[in-house]
Write a structure and sequence with these properties.
Blueprint (H helix, E strand, L loop, with lengths): L1 E11 L3 H13 L3 E14 L6 E13 L1
Antiparallel strand pairs: 1-3, 2-3
């Protein structure tokens, strides 16, 4: 088993309780998440549609077999 430090950009929505689940699902694609943190959140507004999107910049430690 090896340990890896990864970074990921994950789109998040306004439902706070769903953020952790979304992050963990995305991190599982890279291995078994041991710990993670949202290091930054970037907000953007599309000028044409006026829709706001948020991207979480996540740092994590995962293990792989």
């Amino acid at each position: 088993m090896t340990t890896h430090f990864i970074t990921a950009e994950i789109e998040i929505n306004e439902h706070q309780e769903a953020i952790a689940k979304t992050v963990e699902q995305e991190l599982t694609k890279h291995g078994e998440p041991l710990r993670w943190a949202i290091a930054a959140v970037e907000s953007k507004v599309d000028n044409d549609t006026n829709i706001k999107t948020q991207t979480a910049h996540v740092e994590a430690v995962v293990t792989r077999k």
